[in-house]
From TrEMBL:
It comes from Apodemus speciosus. Residues 172-368 form the B30.2/SPRY domain. Residues 1-26, 366-386 are annotated as: Disordered. The lineage of its organism: Eukaryota, Metazoa, Chordata, Craniata, Vertebrata. This is B box and SPRY domain-containing protein. PANTHER family: E3 UBIQUITIN-PROTEIN LIGASE TRIM (PTHR24103). Residues 377-386 have a biased composition (Basic residues). InterPro entries: B30.2/SPRY (IPR001870), B30.2/SPRY_sf (IPR043136), Butyrophylin_SPRY (IPR003879), ConA-like_dom_sf (IPR013320), PRY (IPR006574), SPRY_dom (IPR003877), TRIM/RBCC (IPR050143). It comes from the Eukaryota.
Length: 386
């Protein structure tokens, strides 16, 4: 920088008269200072490009390579675990099939032998009737009694679970969790679920996009009466019914501590305050419910408590009608919260109830979030949660 100042002074013109020269010198020093700052700035940038960016580039290459290795390593492990689980389950299914087949063969042989014995006894007794006279029949009374007793000892066939294939052999927590995660995070697996405004309780407000339900505590006078509408419990049904296949949807429940979500039969009654309209208290509804910090699965008046470590911000529901499975899933943690298995009716609809604040249907799996657990707050109303 001193060299810059010497060069600058050597290029300066002859001194000016007193007064004017001082001002010019001050301006000159300002320009020189500015040039020095520009030169320092350029040197800093050059150093940053040469050292920092170069180092960043090398680090990016190394980190990207490590990330690729990590992805390959973890997915290889997932594939390995999936292949092992597949092999285990297929062997289990094959073993159960063989067991059922052998049980049926054993039963077939047993009853074929029983039929042969009965035919032999019947032939023998018919022969006695046709061949012997009355006196001879009396003399054969003991023999006839023994043969009749032998026939009675051959019991009628009774159905047994041992003769049926046990579908539980294909149940796997790992497979269920991987399957649920895959369906929930697949756009192709998501349903466009909208709420049927005709079913919405007067205690609820439905948003214009038909995805959000808000509890209002007081019945809306502007709500027109409809045969499809729930008139007491704060319930609502989806507009689309599921009859076959696999279906999945997500509900945002972060802001409510009193809600129910699940599925219901189209036969679910809508009118009155009885249990036949109350979700989870009848044979027409299968729901996951929250009341404050209590969670449970409810169906037909049976309530199974669920021990959850955190309050889920979202709930994913997967309905496999062919397999007869209803899965409740936490998309944020990848946790299966509950599985219910049974032969469902052929026409089911997503169902919702909220008695505190708001719940809403998510637009898709890519909209899911991983929030911190919502802060605990006491429910302001328990009108329909329990």
């Amino acid at each position: 920088m001193r060299h810059l100042r010497r060069v600058w002074r050597s290029l300066s013109p002859a001194p000016h008269p007193p007064g004017g020269g001082a001002r010019r010198g001050a301006e000159t020093n300002k320009i020189v200072d500015q040039c020095e700052r520009l030169q320092l700035q350029s040197a800093g940038i050059a150093k940053y490009v040469a050292e920092v960016l170069q180092g960043k580039n090398q680090k990016a290459v190394i980190t990207a390579s490590a990330s690729r290795d990590l992805v390959i390593q973890r997915l290889s492990l997932v594939r390995s675990v999936c292949e092992s689980e597949e092999q285990r389950l297929l062997e289990h299914v094959h073993g159960e099939e063989e067991r059922a087949h052998q049980s049926i063969l054993t039963q077939r042989a047993h009853w074929a032998d029983a039929i042969q014995k009965l035919d032999t006894l019947r032939t023998s007794m018919v022969d006695m009737l046709t061949r012997l006279n009355d006196l001879q029949l009396i003399q054969k009374e003991q023999e006839i009694f023994e043969r009749a007793e032998e026939a009675e000892g051959i019991l009628d066939p009774q159905d047994s679970e041992k003769l049926s294939f046990n579908e539980k052999c294909a149940w796997s927590p790992l497979l269920t969790q991987l399957w649920a995660t895959s369906v929930i995070w697949s756009l192709s697996g998501m349903e466009e679920v909208l709420i049927d405004e005709r079913t919405v309780s007067p205690l609820l407000h439905l948003s214009e996009d038909r995805r959000t339900l808000t509890f209002t505590a007081k019945k809306s006078r502007a709500c027109p009466d409809d045969p499809e509408r729930f008139d007491h419990w704060p319930n609502a049904l989806a507009a689309t019914a599921f009859q076959t296949g696999i279906h999945a949807w997500i509900v945002n429940v972060k802001h409510s501590c009193a809600y129910k979500v699940g599925v219901a039969s189209a036969q679910l009654p809508r009118k009155g305050s009885g249990s036949d309209c109350r979700l989870g208290h009848n044979a027409f509804s299968w729901v996951f419910s929250r009341y404050d910090r209590e969670f449970c699965f409810s169906h037909n008046g049976q309530h199974e408590p669920l021990a959850l470590l955190r309050c889920p911000a979202q709930l994913g529901m997967l309905l496999d009608l062919q397999a007869g499975e209803l899965v409740f899933y936490d998309p944020a943690s990848g946790t299966v919260l509950h599985i219910h298995r049974e032969a469902f009716p052929q026409r089911l609809l997503p169902v919702f109830a909220v008695a505190d604040q708001v719940i809403s249907i998510a637009h898709g799996p890519l909209a899911t979030v991983r929030p911190d657990p919502p802060p605990h707050h006491p429910c302001r109303s328990g009108h329909a949660s329990r």
